[in-house]
Design brief:
By secondary structure, the chain is an all-alpha fold. The chain has one domain.
Length: 330
Amino acid sequence: MALIQWKAFKVKIMNWSDFKYYGLLVIAMFFWGLSWPLAQIMVEQATQFQIGFFRFLIASFVYLIILWSTNFKKFRTYTWKSIRDFTILGILGIFGYGTLFLTAMKFTTSSQGAVIAGIQPALIAISSFIIFGEKLNPKWRYLGIILSFSGVIVIIGIQPFIDFNLDHLIGNIIVFIAFLFWCGYTLYGKKVMERHSSLETTTWSSFTGMLMFGIAALIENKWSLMTSISLDFWIYITLLGLFTTVVSFFLYFYVINKIGAVRSGVFINLVPVFGTLLSIIILHQENANTLWIGLILISLGILLINYPKDFTTNLKDDKITKNQVVNCSF
């Protein structure tokens, strides 16, 4: 029986028609990784509140059109509880995370931030255990958490002592705090999505977050900066709002519906890799050896946490889990 199962798995993995889906996953991971160097470029021209507002203005507009065309009646059936939940998600995962993420890019390098971002699955696994009692199974997946945190310690704790840079240290700590906010968004979103779809949750959290960015930008009152913004800024903000936030989201979940969450989830490993490489290519950033050590440790950690415990179990029936739906935005 085991031999038959293995053969079935081998045929499934080597199905050449699946490679087009792998290509779509790589594209999605590319755009998520691209957000790091683009953010570092844009914070030199505008404030984090202005960047966040325009990014999610574009994303919310597209999401609302899609939601309107697929689920029109839902627009008139939201309760105050649902509005509260979407607002909390907007505070945690859009405004809170986005503000910290963009602030960090004023201090540290995008390549270091992208590598630290790889700690996300480990943070969510630990938080899920503490709050919901969810355990990783099999237990060897806990080694992935240890490896991931070891990578972060190398970057935040060891690298500053080898080549001390106070700004980088501050920025890296802010990135870590940002992903604590994202972790809260993920866990709270898991509960919200017991009552609402992933499209609704993402649409309305993006919309409420966009409103918060807009209010903060008005209070900040630095719109005079917009008069000197280059055309490149608007190209980058469009890439972030449309491709990183919307297109990659739909590509990822389209592929999950085709080949399953198990194989799709492993591709998340590419996000910190693309973020680091694109930062080096676009911004010509030079990085210490400790960054590459941290990248390897975190990538191995992500791989172990997401690695399927049994490849022989009905891959075609592998469904999107609510935890995954809210874990994959960068």
